[in-house]
Structure formats: structure tokens, C-alpha cells
Input
Amino acid sequence: MSELIDSLQPRFEGLEPRPSSDHPAMQCPVGLLLPLIECLRDEFSYSLLCDVTAIDWEEESPRFSVVYHLYSVKEGRYVRIVTNCEDDENPSVPSIVALYPGANWHERETFDMFGIRFEGHPDLKRILMWDGYPYYPLRKEFPLAGIETELPDAEIAEETKAKVLPAPMMGGPFVAADGSPMSKSEPRAKDQSWTEWKKKEALGGNDLDK
Amino acid sequence: MATTTKEISIGDMGARASAHQDELQGENMAINVGPSHPTTHGVLRLMMELDGDLIKKCEPVVGYLHRGDEKIAENMTYNQFVPYTDRLDYIAPLANNVAYAMAVEKLADLEVPPRCAAIRVMVSELARISSHLLGIGVYGMDAGAWTPFMYTFTEREKLYTLFEELTGARFTTSYTRIGGVARDVPEGWLQKVSDFCDQFLPILEETCNLLTRNRIFMDRTEGVGVISKEDALAYGITGPNLRASGVDLDLRKDRPYLGYDQYDFDVPIGTTGDCYDRYLIRAEEVRQSVRIIRQVIKSFPEGSWYAEDAKKIYAPQKGKILTSMEELIQNFMIVTEGPRMPEGEVYFEAENPKGILGFFVVSKGGGVPYRLKIRSPSFCNLSILPKIAPGLYLSDITVLLGSLDFVMGECDR
Output
């Protein structure tokens, strides 16, 4: 498992094995990312880029880690490369689009969800959320229900005065609240008002009430 | 006689046209397909630039079905997320259920018993048949052949009846649990699957006969939207689309999970990577799936359908919960706090009908994932559109999209 990392370590100073429950994983200094991935692609036959994503470690620093998964079609092996963004406020890593064109959308998604900039990306813009959306939804401080924002189309927003509203979800049915006592985090419909008997006032009360 | 055929005026018109040629051809037309358009099979939007009928530029816009599944996953227990996996590739929910359960079990380092693995292989392959039947059916329809669609949907209906009997739901099955499946196969169900396979193969051949040597279908698909081997790998295309381009990558063979290595089946590989190849690959994969299912039925193991030793992960059976104190506590803990998971990072990929579906799970312990990333095949398969669409005619777009066989629920998550 660590053979790969052992053979790479003399060439890439600062490369370290990373604890992992399955595939070989390595922690790579951000400056070595491009040469390392190029080396894995060209010399170790990791020809398929599976995935690019990020993890938000919330209070820790460095706060954002970018995770790459590569697969070798020839040998049927995976490798995981993790690099930390140096700046917690304006995180950025170099883009690997030049090495794997397929990274284009993955990096756009990671930028969209975490606000991590990929330096050298040909067209870094939002992909799942709309252009001009002001938040990064997968950051830990972003609430599950969402935040009230303007509609994507300014003209329609002006005319209708409508807004994108948070989903009535947190504290609602089947959402376990984090960090509270178990009796409160029990996944159960907390809002039971829909089961209560409602008086039909328009009809002046209902006979069934009696 | 000779005077009437003198064509000076036509020559004049030609000369005048060539004088205006620059400004006429310089003007590209912007056309917008979707997000709600029958061609796009969901809510995909394509922003295209056309020169006459020729596509100059094609930019897919995705995200119209984004529901934030990854955010939701961080806020609920592992088992609670199973229904959300139904809504990824909603054409083959059972295969998603299996892939997700496998990823979390890998985190817990948990082996499922052989009977459970056999059930999972069977439902994955049934899901593959269901997905490819839809893929072939609507693909034919996109190319103008209505009839195959009717055939394949009749067969899918029978599959849905089988799913309903097994899981209780036709569409959103939520069948797997971490450490097993929700319930054992009902009595006589295997026989019904076997009967289905017997009557299904002739109908599949009949359906394919309508398309495989259909002159119109071939003219519309052969040589259209060719994806080279190198491009397919570079863009992370997976599944039948990658194999159509000639890359031998099938995780069921290369990294066997669930005991796929016990079963004998072939992986079809294409040669040219055009739209026609992608159709042929899907048709052949359906036949191979039937082969696998027959072998599973033949060697269906006895035993438990859930990991009995995983007491903190798989909830005990209902009968025991109601009669025994320890099981009651166990059930309460699993339901309220979620299955007890160790810390760690795992990445698991399964060979799903649409391609490779991957789950990257980061756990800090406890019953809720710290981060769950879904690597969806449709998302990656669509990202090649800006590369292969330019140079095609506008009418080829329907065929190209049909041949890529994507699902927006999975693409947008």
C-alpha cells in the first residue's frame, strides 16, 4: 500500500502518507500538486481522474482540504491526494485542467460549493448554483435550510419582489439537530401541528368537535 | 432551343451571392435548448451557437435539479440518507442503494453475508436492465423510432412489479440498509425473476431487431458524436459510454465487489465510440445482466440477509425488538443516533448502469457523516459535450444526448 508513496517521497519533498481506511493516500504540499499529479498520470498510469472535491474542517486551520481521486485503468488501483489550502479566508489551489480536461466541471463545482479558487482554470464560474449567488453552500457555517437571497433574474425580482426563501427544514420533520441532547436530536416529526384538529371557523365550528 | 438554356442570370446571381458571402456566413445564430425540452431528458439546458445547421459551440448549463444532497447527508444519519440515493439515478434506484450501502460498509469494515451479496448483485443487475431498457427505448425514440420504446416500457413495467414485490415500492425503493438489505426475498420471487428472464430475452431480440440493422437508425447514429479513447479517459467518461470508445474498464471485473468474480459474464467493448456503438454496448450489457441473474438464481445461498454480528449498525428484527430488552435498546440507539461508525475516509465506486458512481465518505465517528461527496457518472459524461458537439448538425444533438444516456437527478444532485 505504501510502496507507491515510498517511491515518490525522494522525488517530492514534503509528501507524506495520510491516514486512510482504504486506498493509498498522500498529503501533498500545495506547491508540488501539479508535478505530482503529472508524474502519477504519466509514470504510474493513473489515467482516469475520478473526482475532485473538498472538505471544510470548520474551526481547524488549514480549513480547506482539496481531495483528488485517481484511478489506474491498467492496474485497477486508486490513489487519493489531499492538499491543504494555505489561506483560510481566500482559499486557492492550482488547477489541474491542463492535465485532465475532465477536472473542469469538478473544479467549478468545488468552487461553487466551497469558494475555493482554482488558479489557472479556463472558466471558473458557478455550475450548480446560479451566477451571482452570494454564498458557498457546502461550507459548514451555511445553514441546512438555506439563506434568503434575491432571485437569479434581476428583472423578475424587481417586478415580482419575490425572493428565494430558506426551506422550512431545520427543526422540521426528521432532521436530527447537531450537538443537542439526544431527546432533542431524536429524528421525529417535531412539528406536530398538522395532526391537530383544526376548527373550520368559516362554517361556525364543526359538529365533530363535540 | 439553345437560347432558352442560356443561364447567364444564374451565373449573375452566384456572383452577387459571393459578394455578400462574408457578411452572411459571419453571423452565427444563438439557440437555446431546454431546460425543459424533450430532447434533454430532464432539465438540461444547452446554449449553442449555430452556423446554419452546424453547431459551432455548445455549452451545457446544469444545476436546475440541484437539491443539495451532499449538504443534507451531513445532517442525517447514514440510514436516513438511503432514500436520497433513490433520487440520484432515478432510473436505477436499486443500484444506487447498493453502491451507497457498500461505501458506508467499507468505512465500517463490514462484510455482508453471501445471501445479502447475492440479493444485491441481483437487484443491481435488474436495475441495469431497467436502466438500459429505458436508455435504448428513448434513444430509439430520439432517432425517430417509436416502436422500440413501447416494447422496452412493457418490459420495464414487469420489472417494476418485481421491484414492488421485493421492496414495497415501484420507483423509490430504498432497499438497502447499512449492513444488509431491508428484507429477505419473498417466497417464490426468484422463480418469478427466472420466468421474467425467460420471456424477456426473445422480446429483447425483437426490440433490437427493430434498431440494430435499421437503415434510418444507422444513418443517424453511425459516425456521429465519436469520442476517442483518449478523450473519453481524459474527461472521466465511464460506464457504457467509455466502453463504447474501446476502453476496457468495468469495475465488476477489475475490482470485483459483492462477489462479482464468481459469476461468468463478458464485458462488451466498442471499436469506434460513436453513437451507434453506445447503443450496441447497452444492448449487449442487458444480455450479460440476464446471464448474471440466472447464475445468481442457480447459486442463491442460504443464510442471513444482513450482517448479524454488526449489532451497532444494522437494526434488529422487529420481532426481537418487541420481545427483548437488549434489542430494543439497540434499535433505539441506531434509530436515534445512527449506526456507530469509526473515524476515517473511504472512497468507494460501483459500476452502475450509467457509469461509475462513487461515494467519498469522511467520518469523524458517530452516526452522521462529516462529509459525503457523490461522484456522479452523468455529471462527468455530460462534461464532454462542449468538446464533441461542435461540428455536428443541430439534428444530431438529439441522437447524441440520447446515446449518452444521462439522468439529471444524478448530475445535479
